[in-house]
Amino acid sequence: MDTTTRVAIATIALQLVLAVPSAIAGGPQPCEYPIEYRQANMILLKFQDALTTERWQEALLFCSDRVRKAAQGWPTPKEFFSKTLPLAKVVAGVGCPYWQEQHNGAFHSYGLLIRLTEPRQEPLVQWYWNMFTTNNTWAIDWEPVAIDLNAMIEKQRAEDRDHRKRVETARSELEPKLRTIKTHLTALSDHCVVGSPMLFRVELMNFGKSAINFMAAGVEYHPLRLLNEKSEPIPFVEAPAQIVMREGVVAPESSEILADSIDIAKHYSISRPGTYFVQFDGAPLEIGARIPRTDKRISSEDEFVATSTKLPSNVVKIEVTTGQKE
């Protein structure tokens, strides 16, 4: 099996000003933030406090070298902050969706997007700033130029048009590949017995001449589709799970195992012997392609563009018994 697979580390949303416990696997989990989180939070609060009380020179001390250098070209620090920052929103901490980047186990960068346009106004225009470490000291950084909302709206419209065109092109180029790939379901249990595990494997097969990109969200935890002998769907029981987004590439004329031991007995209460039909519905799997990201400030990785096509597997017929000899 010639494949390349990696686990995509999802961007982790953080709230630096107001720490809110996250809800994973169906319930709140305790927040354990690194010391860098506390240090960055302290700098942010001091910066906001200096802006609130118009201590402009002090506020500059928390800024990056390029921001401080740019401020020297303005008549006053007050005018600089008022023109290059959405000052009221920065001071108020309006919606602070931070993300963090992890490198070699250390947290060194936090980013923030502030929406400049009204909630229902299109296009969405956001202002970006971030915090990063230099010599173990946090600095606040942004593009130190005057904010021109009208110009930003026109620029965003042009970028949106270009993005839509690139996405449409990528999806159009994916269409021929969809005819050469499929998902395959295999029963791993020789005998399906009431009260015992009933294991299945899900594979993604590529019969084409070019590699394919995929993204899968917890295939091993996603309930397989189960029908009784009358082809009636059987309700499943949702089981809590911590889902990890997995991304990979399947080489030409090769396959990739998406889940190796899905136990349908964990999701269904199978108490009666009989004939059943099992299928992977394709819901947690996306086939796509990567295109260059327009805004590299958000992420240096290319953007994953998925098709809307789902790939349900073959249907596997199983006979469930009580395990007792007649």
Explain how this protein is built.
23% of the residues lie in helices and 33% in strands. With 326 residues, the protein is an alpha+beta fold. A five-stranded antiparallel beta sheet has the order 1-14-12-17-18, with helices on one face. Strands 2-5-6-7-8 form a five-stranded antiparallel beta sheet. The protein is elongated and about 85 Å long. The protein starts with a strand and ends in a 5-residue tail after the last strand.
Report mean pLDDT, rounded to a whole number. Answer: 83
H-E order: EEEEHHHHHEEEEHEEEEEEEEEEE
Kindly report how far apart the N and C termini lie: 43 Å
Which class best fits the helix and strand makeup? alpha+beta
Q: What share of residues is helical?
A: 10-25%
Residue stretches low in confidence (pLDDT < 50, at least 5 long) are: 1-29
Strand order of the largest sheet: 1-14-12-17-18
Please describe the biggest sheet, giving its number of strands, its sense, and whether it closes into a barrel: 5 strands, antiparallel
Strand content: 25-35%
- What is the 3D shape? elongated
Q: What is the overall number of helices?
A: 6
What Rg do the Cα atoms give? 26 Å
Number of strands: 19
Summary of the model, kept short:
The chain has helices spanning 35-52, 56-60, 65-71, 77-84, 87-92, 149-178, and strands spanning 3-7, 12-14, 23-24, 27-28, 98-103, 106-115, 126-134, 137-142, 181-187, 192-193, 199-206, 212-217, 225-227, 245-250, 254-263, 274-279, 285-291, 303-306, 316-321. The chain is α+β, with helices and mostly antiparallel strands and 326 residues long. A hairpin with a 2-residue loop joins strand 3 and strand 4 (27-28).
